[in-house]
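Reader question, answered in our methods column.
A reader sent in the components of a multi-part assembly and asked whether the whole thing could be modeled at once rather than chain by chain. We filled in our standard form and ran it. Here is what they sent:
COMPLEX SIZE: four components
ENTRIES:
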Amino acid sequence: MTKRSLQRDLIRENLAHRHDHPTADMVYYSIRQELPNISLGTVYRNLKFLVEQGDILSLNLGDGREHFDGQIKPHYHFICNQCGNIEDIFMDELQICEEAAKHCSGKITGHSTYFYGLCNQCKNKH
Amino acid sequence: MTKRSLQRDLIRENLAHRHDHPTADMVYYSIRQELPNISLGTVYRNLKFLVEQGDILSLNLGDGREHFDGQIKPHYHFICNQCGNIEDIFMDELQICEEAAKHCSGKITGHSTYFYGLCNQCKNKH
DNA sequence: ATTATTGCAAAGATTTTGCATCACC
DNA sequence: GGTGATGCAAAATCTTTGCAATAAT
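And here is the structure of the entire assembly that came back:
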């Protein structure tokens, strides 16, 4: 049985309200502004918990660290090879979710896609 | 200018021929059977190189380690919450690639999606 | 000849964990 | 009161890197 905690609530809200894709220590430093005593271990424990719950997504952005995304509405990511900038891609994905549903029972808790290339901004710098 | 090496060739082929999603050290132990002297650093260096080239994909399977996938034909992954098993989902994704293409110029080098849930096998064990 | 790549080992970075204490139910 | 969650720090894990030697062009 899980008990509520201020720390977990703050982490969940922090991720829900931001639109970037922070790592664990970025979340840690952000939360510390409101709750200076929070520990990094607690942030890691709760991020893992929230990913398992399906409240947040875990992303691999290719830099070796785990990134997190509070936007659970299924969407995709475009990552620029040159500047590293990440753009969210929202689109109809009914078809793909139906296909995924064939593989499981119950709700699907995570869903995220990455594309890598040269973004339009970097392209125009030539 | 890049030079060819046996080590890199073996790593690329190893990933192209297998259909699981190994971590760096799994690739390392696999290659060591043919080339016992290869070092872990070399495997890491080449995996990173191959990801950047777009020859292989980097996957985040939620266990904290980076996984690799030699199947570059765009596809999706279903990951069972209970047994950890991974199933590939192949389907038409013309629409989604077109959408991603709006964000960039040149080729898109990576593309991979994850879904998490309870797989049919685990479901049937109740 | 030049320089990319390697093997090795050490260093760096990230993430997990043991434990005493605290807070929720 | 019982137990889930925390803070802290140490440990474990994963990945990168410096450097001398080797191999590819």
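What stands out: The mean pLDDT of chain A is 77. Helices of chain A lie at 6-17, 24-32, 40-53, 94-101, 120-123.
Send us your own complexes using the same form.
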